[in-house]
Design goal:
The protein is of the alpha/beta class. The chain has 2 domains: 2-188 and 377-427, Rossmann fold (3-Layer(aba) Sandwich), CATH 3.40.50.2000; 201-375 and 454-489, 3-Layer(aba) Sandwich (Rossmann fold), CATH 3.40.50.2000. Helices cover 42% and strands 13% of the residues. The protein is built from 19 helices and 14 strands. The strands form 2 sheets. An 8-stranded mixed β-sheet has the order 3-4-2-1-5-6-7-8, sandwiched between helices.
Length: 496
């Protein structure tokens, strides 16, 4: 079987959670004999065409011109993706291997739908998040455009994959997708990345860069956006410090750091809060190993891969009960839950963990056991293959198989010739969806070098504290959230 993955990001280009998800899934599928081709956006950090050691084929496409805004960029990417896929499909035509398109999020909708109807081949979609969920509703033209794109993605897909029961409910509720069309397959984590040899002396030296020897370390990893609840943690910090003053908060991520620092100064927390900037690879894994508590206070979270990473690294995890996090972190079993958006509840949870180290150790052990049973990428790949096989079997029994241009029956070659698909593969046939009445704010498009910024395997925490932000798209919409002190600082949401 051949799977064509359509994703706007793929390593080394990392903007959000889609990139590592597609990478890990593709790798495990290839290990199980699936021929995987990933079509993604070009980056100067990697070749346009390559076969990775895992066997995954990666095709990075170039935009025809410089985009005017975010939506325009996505449309240009879909056009380039469509053309490259057509070229590949014509190369594979004579083989007749079972082929399925797997589109990741609304960003790949247009090319996936175009190819689906042209070749009469099945398309599967993975919905990683919803615009309605991220914003607590749909308020702007841009949000409406994305929301409608998500609807069409779920509508056009043969089956829809989501990462949690929570997301299954969202897709059903917002897009009226039948529940029996939606498959829940959890995200995973490669626990082995966090299990490196590290002496106590090395840990102590690294920890000394973050906090004083007697201080407990509470760490946060995530984007500096409202949906991730960074403001809830900073409001909770005063609660924690009033009861346990020997606590240090280490904040990892990128975004509107200036506003956060202003908030920290106003609260008198400057000596108790450390911003590290964006971190990746071994530096981040070392930080997890140093932390006493890893906190994920999201207001909206489809799943929460960072919580899995915290568990894999051996940190005691505290997470809000928002969205899929309640399925990842089982309260008082594999971690501690708190009420989403409630600084008092979060403060209590942090104090409860750092004051009860024996209980924290039990939570860590249970979390490590659950990683193996529920969040192993090998198991996730097997579940995904089951979906592929089911879809292909249903496809062969449908009228689509009689009309397909794929050489699985007589007449496919003639139909392909009549529809001039070979010519279209050379010239392009993609038509972008109209954007009538959609007001898209101008965006600052970050360089791909910045998008992939991070530490190499042997890097340590830098002496300085630079801001390296991979998050490029900013909203200037109205502040619709509760008027806490932090909210009045007017922190804006970043759109990816």
């Amino acid at each position: 079987m051949r799977i064509v993955m359509l994703s706007w990001e793929y390593p080394p280009r990392i903007v959000g959670g889609i990139s590592p998800h597609v990478y890990d899934l593709s790798k495990r599928l290839a290990e199980r004999g699936i021929e995987v081709h990933v079509i993604t956006k070009h980056t100067p950090l990697a070749p346009d065409e390559e076969i990775e050691p895992s066997g995954v084929h990666v095709h990075r496409v170039h935009l025809a011109k410089e985009p005017d805004n975010f939506v325009h960029e996505i449309q240009l990417l879909n056009k380039a993706t469509d053309l490259r896929c057509r070229q590949l499909l014509e190369e594979w035509r004579e083989e007749g291997m079972p082929t399925i398109f797997h589109a990741h999020d609304w960003l790949s909708l247009d090319s996936a739908r175009s190819l689906k109807y042209e070749y009469q081949l099945p398309m599967i979609a993975t919905v990683h998040a919803t615009e309605h969920g991220r914003n607590g509703g749909i308020y702007t033209d841009l949000q409406r455009y994305i929301h409608e794109s998500e609807y069409w993605l779920t509508y056009e897909a043969w089956r829809v994959i989501v990462c949690a029961e929570f997301m299954k409910g969202e897709v059903n509720r917002y897009f009226n997708s039948p529940l029996d069309k939606i498959d829940v397959i959890y995200n995973g984590v490669e626990a082995a990345k966090f299990q490196f040899e590290w002496s106590e002396q090395e840990r102590a030296a690294w920890r000394g860069k973050l906090a004083l020897p007697h201080e407990k370390i509470v760490m946060y990893v995530g984007r500096f956006v409202r949906e991730k609840g960074i403001h809830v943690l900073l409001n909770a910090a005063s609660v924690v410090l009033a009861n346990e003053p020997d606590t240090k908060f280490v904040i990892v991520g990128g975004g509107n750091r200036e506003q956060l620092e202003k908030f920290v100064r106003w609260y008198g927390l400057k000596d108790k809060v450390l911003f590290t900037g964006f971190m990746a690879n071994r530096s981040l894994h070392q930080l997890y190993r140093c932390a006493d508590v890893a906190v994920f206070p999201s207001l909206y979270e489809p799943f929460g891969i960072v919580a899995l990473e915290g568990m894999a690294a051996g940190a005691a995890v505290i997470a809000s009960d928002a969205g899929g996090l309640r399925e990842v972190v089982l309260h008082d079993k594999t971690g501690t839950s708190c009420f989403a958006g409630d600084p008092q509840s979060l403060g209590w949870a942090i104090l409860n963990v750092i004051r009860n180290p024996e209980h924290a150790e039990k939570l860590k052990e249970a979390a490590a056991e659950r990683l193996v049973t529920d969040f192993d990428w090998g198991r996730i790949a097997d579940q995904t293959i089951e979906v592929y096989e089911r879809v292909w079997e249903e496809f062969l029994g449908s009228y689509w198989a009689e009309r397909t241009l794929w050489p699985i029956n007589e007449g496919a070659a003639q139909r392909a010739q009549m529809l001039r698909v070979k010519e279209k593969a050379q010239t392009g046939a993609y038509v972008a969806r109209p954007m009538s009445n959609v007001q898209v704010p101008a965006v600052k498009v970050a360089a791909d070098e910045v998008l992939a910024a991070g530490k190499s395997e042997g890097d340590e925490l830098p002496d300085e504290d630079p801001l390296v932000s991979p998050y490029a798209y900013w909203s200037t919409g109205p502040d619709r959230h509760p008027a806490t002190l932090f909210d009045r600082l007017n922190l804006r949401t970043i759109y990816l």
